[in-house]
Amino acid sequence: MKAYKKALVLFLLLLVLSVGTAFASAGGSEGGGSWSPWMLIWRVINTVALIAVLVYFLKKPMANFFSERRAQIQKDLEDAKEQRDRAERTIAEYEKKIGEMGRELDKMREELRKAAGVESEKVVSNADRMAATMVESAKLAADQEVRKAKMILKNEAVGLAVELAESLIREKINEDDRKRIVEEYLVKVGGMK
Asked: What is the DSSP letter of 116?
């Protein structure tokens, strides 16, 4: 049934185009290029018919292409958001741990001061150094996790870009382009010797 409709539409299009061409050629030989109302009507009909055929045949493929593309982009955005959320949760966890360490260290300092004496002063200074080292290492670990998450996001973005570029190149390059690229490469390599 669909094949019948398509054949009928194509037949009508060819009929309209051939009648329009006949009117155009007949009008061109009479008055040296004058416009008649019938000529204008047939040109409008031809244009409308061409647009209708194009819409009929291209509507579904274009709609499918754009809906698939939209779905892929939506999925990629959701994946990136999920990874960003994971990285933010990791940063929040490390910041919380750093805050807890700071409170614990303050508590340790107070207890050591109460213990008194010269020995307690030595312990406090050691605790301060350890605290600074622990805070610094925790910050470094948090920074490293953030860099790692950013690198993962960047690598995925690059991978998606490469896949998109590769698919576009595969769609756009034909056999003649491939031959031309290979010949240009061989000429360049031959010129380097």
From this structure: -
Q: Which residues contact 115 (CB under 8 A, 6 or more apart)?
A: 123
> How far apart are the C-alpha atoms of 60 and 80, rounded to whole Å?
30
DSSP for 11-67, written as a single string: HHHHHHHHHHHHHHHHHHHHSSS---HHHHHHHHHHHHHHHHHHHHHHHHHHHHHHH
Length of the chain: 193
The helix/strand/coil state of 31 is coil
Token pair listed for 2:
């669909």
User: Whole-angstrom Cα distance, residue 79 to residue 6?
Assistant: 42
72-73-74 Cα angle (round to 5)? 90
Give the model's pLDDT for residue 11. Answer: 67
Of 95, 128, 88, the closest CA to residue 110 belongs to 128
Element (H, E) at 109: helix 37-115
Quote the pLDDT of residue 75. 94
Mean pLDDT by 10 residues, the chain (193 residues): 63 64 54 73 90 86 89 93 92 87 83 72 77 84 86 85 79 82 85 60
